[in-house]
Amino acid sequence: MGKQTLLPTLLITLFFLAPSAWAGDCSITVDSDDAMSFDTDEIVIDQSCDVIELTLTHSGDLGIEAMGHNIVFTRAEDLEALAQDAMEASDDDYVPAGDERVIAATDLIGGGESTTLELDPSLFEEDGDYRFFCSFPGHWGAMQGEVVIR
Ligand SMILES: [Cu+2]
C-alpha cells in the first residue's frame, strides 16, 4: 500500500470504528404541529449515551392553551391510565406531580416554541416496554409512539 492510499484508508476505518461517537445518537429532535401529531412514531434511546438531549419543537401557530404539546415517557402498561389522570393535572402542565409512572417529561410548549430535556438513558431498562406520548388533554391517542432501547 503506497503512502497516498494510507490516509484515506485510515479515515474510512475511523469512520466505521466510531459510529457511537457521532453526536446524532445522543441528540434527538422531535417536531410537533397544529395537526396534533409528532413527526416520528419512535424515539431511540441509545444506552451508550451519557445523556440524551431531547428537543421538542412545535412548528405550528396555535398557542399552548389550544394546542400544547409535551413528551412524556412511561411504561407501555401505564400509558392509558396515566394519560387519563394527566388530563386533571392542569396546574402542573398535565404532568401529575410526583407520579411514579412518569419516567421523564419535557416542558409543555405552544406553536413556535421549543424545549430541551436532558434525558438519562439509564432510566430505561434494556428489556422494558416503553412509550412516549403528549399528555395535553385529548392528544395521547394520536400523539404517541414506541421507545426503542439500544
Ligand atoms: Cu399535544
Task: Summarize it.
The protein is an alpha/beta fold. The chain is built from three helices and eight strands.
Explained architecture:
- With about 150 residues, the chain is α/β, with parallel strands linked by helices.
- It has a single domain (about 25-150), classed as Immunoglobulin-like, CATH 2.60.40.420.
- It is about 20% helix and about 25% strand.
- It has helices spanning about 5-15, 65, 80-85, and strands at about 25-30, 40-45, 50-60, 70-75, 105, 115-120, 130-135, 145-150.
- The strands form 2 sheets. It has a 5-stranded mixed sheet, covered by helices on one side. A 3-stranded mixed sheet has the order 1-3-6, with no helix packed on it.
- The protein is globular, with a radius of gyration of 19 Å.
- It starts with a helix and ends with a strand.
- Mean pLDDT is about 90; it is low at about 10-15 and about 15-20.
- The structure holds copper (II) ion.
- The site of copper (II) ion has 6 residues, from loops.
- Keywords: Copper, Electron transport, Metal-binding, Periplasm, Signal, Transport.
- InterPro entries: Azurin, BlueCu_1, BlueCu_1_BS, Cu-binding_ET, Cupredoxin.
- It is found in: Periplasm.
- Pfam families: Copper-bind (PF00127).
- Transfers electrons from cytochrome c551 to cytochrome oxidase.
Number of domains: 1
* Beta-strand share of residues: 25-35%
CATH architecture: Sandwich
What is the name of the CATH superfamily?
Cupredoxins -  blue copper proteins
* Counted beta strands: 8
Strand line-up of the largest beta sheet = 2-8-7-4-5
What CATH calls the topology is Immunoglobulin-like
Shape: globular
Number of helices: 3
Overall residue-averaged pLDDT value: 90
Which sheet architecture does the biggest sheet show? 5 strands, mixed
The low-confidence parts are 10-14, 17-21
Bound molecules: copper (II) ion
Instruction: Tell me the radius of gyration.
Output: 19 Å
Please give the CATH class: Mainly Beta
Distance between the termini: 38 Å
Domain Blue (type 1) copper: 25-149
Protein name: Azurin
Keywords: Copper, Electron transport, Metal-binding, Periplasm, Signal, Transport
GO molecular function: copper ion binding; electron transfer activity
